[in-house]
Design a protein that fits this description.
By secondary structure, this protein is mainly alpha-helical. The chain has ten helices and no strands. The chain has two domains: 14-66, Arc Repressor Mutant, subunit A (Orthogonal Bundle); 78-191, no CATH class.
Length: 198
């Protein structure tokens, strides 16, 4: 016979492994962006609302989770949305805005900065940046000297992102207009086809 008290108890929730794994990965991206590699698996599990044992089960450990989070932060498909005809102006307008307009993008960039400045994680970053950032830029740019041009493009883009992060607010008025004009000119030059002449 069934105990009536048992009928009132909530049934244990069925685990959704994929949702839990995704929540852990999102929490890792956020924690690594805000704290760096010094954050703990317990911090990440708490952010995800998961048990720390599940972090280890799904990712194996902190290093593997870091690499997976880094890869997930820089999707190689992002460049497919770039329109060559409007890119220079679009990116300049985005860079003139506050870094808080798109918190996810800002967290991705903070993640990159923290990874680049940590001796523990810089080597992981190098591999991911080559695969997920420089290679797609090189392919998008195309033409002669695409590898070198992609590096210059990436260096300029990252430099402008640092300036925006430090500035912390959107530019206004004349400053904004001049900034957008100047940055548009820089990126228009960077994406222009190269004839390969020495």
């Amino acid at each position: 016979m069934t105990d009536p008290a048992m009928l009132d108890r909530p049934r244990p929730r069925k685990r959704d492994a994929e949702a839990t794994r995704a929540a852990i990965l999102e929490a890792a991206k956020k924690q690594f962006a805000l704290v760096g590699y010094d954050c703990t698996l317990r911090d990440i599990a708490g952010e995800a609302g998961a048990d720390v044992a599940l972090v280890k089960r799904y990712f194996g450990g902190k290093e593997a989770l870091f690499i997976e989070a880094l890869k997930a932060s820089f999707g190689s498909d992002d460049l497919r949305e770039w329109d060559r005809a409007t890119f220079a102006h679009d990116v300049a307008a985005m860079l003139a805005d506050s870094p808080h307009v798109d918190e996810a993008r800002t967290h991705r960039f903070q993640f990159l900065l923290r990874a680049a400045t940590s001796p523990t994680t810089a080597s992981f970053l190098s591999v991911v940046i080559q695969d997920r950032f420089l290679a797609p830029i090189r392919d998008w740019l195309g033409g002669a000297d695409a590898d070198a041009r992609a590096r210059v493009f990436a260096a300029c883009y990252i430099g402008f992102l640092v300036e925006r992060l430090i500035r912390g607010v959107a530019l206004q008025g004349r400053d904004r207009e001049v900034f957008i004009d100047q940055v548009s000119a820089v990126f228009a030059t960077l994406i222009a086809p190269s004839d390969g002449a020495a």
